[in-house]
Amino acid sequence: xxxxxxxxxxxxxxxxxxxxxxxxxxxxxxxxxxxxxxxxxxxxxxxxxxxxxxxxxxxxxxxxxxxxxxxxxxxxxxxxxxxxxxxxxxxxxxxxxxxxxxxxxxxxxxxxxxxxxxxxxxxxxxxxxxxxxxxxxxxxxxxxxxxxxxxxxxxxxxxxxxxxxxxxxxxxxxxxxxxxxxxxxxxxxxxxxxxxxxxxxxxxxxxxxxxxxxxxxxxxxxxxxxxxxxxxxxxxxxxxxxxxxxx
Length: 247
Hints:
The protein has helices at residues 12-20, 28-43, 49-52, 57-67, 76-93, 103-112, 118-130, 145-155, 164-178, 231-235; strands spanning 181-188, 194-201, 205-213, 216-230, 241-246. By secondary structure, the chain is of the alpha+beta class. The chain folds into two domains: 12-93, Orthogonal Bundle (Serum Albumin, Chain A, Domain 1), CATH 1.10.246.40; 118-246, no CATH class. It is extended. The model has no long low-confidence stretch (mean pLDDT 80).
């Protein structure tokens, strides 16, 4: 294995080709697509892929087809294999470093160490300030359909038994922790015929695009990641299956 300089190929397009250009994905076109995706995102790491691709529809279509392929060759281990190889090649270029320590000393050091999770305590403090008083929720009175629907939603906002007040607390916790959270309002039309809310964390909001339409900023693209458990396989005696959906 030939050693590489530490800074070899670190510019965005060259880095992507060097790190992922040798991936065996069963078809050279998939490898080229992977290099294109990684190169675009590396050039604009803070934005969504729609922004990184400059809104190019062909690139976006290839991106989603790549994510939704489900082929065995596209598992994370295989995608990262050549990246690991290139990292090891860079490490070989550096001189070895010897670190001598007794095992007992290492255990003693770890036993003495203390961790004060100040960030989590601060976030909990902010959350407590926001909800130091119970939220005031007003719904239409009477036995009309709207009042009944709103009362059902307040008592069980997500159809998982979470009240609207607790759901709001969960949303606030995500926003304080990572700066973003999403709520998808959906309709259940099979049995209860009612509206419900689904909470999506920042990690599960993969891509989005906002466009200016008739003087308003309108969300025109949103890609959500969710894992769905296949109950049918478990009921038939097999292992419970979990598959990934992109909404």
